[in-house]
Amino acid sequence: ALYDPPADANPAVLGSTTGELGIRKFLEDRGVEYIVTADKDGPNSVFAKEMKDATVVISQPFWPAYITADRIATAPNLKMAITAGVGSDHVDLQAACDNNITVIEVTGSNVVSVAEHVVMTMLILMRNFI
Questions:
Q1: Domain count within the chain
Q2: Cβ neighbours of residue 129 under 8 Å, at least 6 residues apart?
Q3: How far, in Å, CA of 99 to CA of 29, rounded?
Q4: pLDDT at 26
Q5: Which of 58, 61, 65 has its CA nearest to residue 114?
Q6: Residue 80: inside a domain, yes or no?
Q7: By C-alpha distance, which of 86, 67, 66, 89 is closest to 78?
Q8: 10 assigned to some structural domain
Q9: CATH of the domain at 122
Q10: For residue 73, is it within any domain?
């Protein structure tokens, strides 16, 4: 579940439905069916329908597809829930544990962005910039 970028956005942004995390070719070359959608909410969403047969789901911390106990109950093949970023609060961890589903996040993926933000915040505060 990835977000749809705005019309004027760079189509190569990896976290979007057009960028597809940059892994489509890698996965398809290995015979993996890779479905990317921004339709993630509700029982009739593409995500909910496809999750029923999925072995791995990938979501994002700022555009999360909620992996609830109810969704897990409908996904007997699910083995892994990956966050393409940091955080797992969109996954029902107890339900994942009860169903032997590994929950993974990409720890450290945003350290450069956080460092840049801190440096810019310090500059803004030092120069009293509004």
A1: 1
A2: 123
A3: 29
A4: 96
A5: 61
A6: yes
A7: 67
A8: no
A9: 3.40.50.720
A10: yes
Mean pLDDT in order along the chain per 10 residues (130 residues): 84 84 94 95 93 93 90 96 86 96 86 88 87
At residue 113, the 3 state secondary structure works out as helix
Task: Report the C-alpha gap between 48 and 60 in whole angstroms.
Answer: 16
For residue 67, give its domain range: 20-127
Residue 33 included in any domain: yes
CA-closest candidate to residue 93, choices 67, 64, 74: 67
Place of tokens 């505060």: 125
Sequence letter at residue 75 = A
**HSE, side-chain direction, 13 A CA sphere, residue 81:** 30
Name the amino acid, one letter, at 81. Answer: A
Write down the pTM of the prediction.
0.77
Strand partners, 56: 80
Helices and strands in the chain: count of H runs, count of E runs: 5, 3
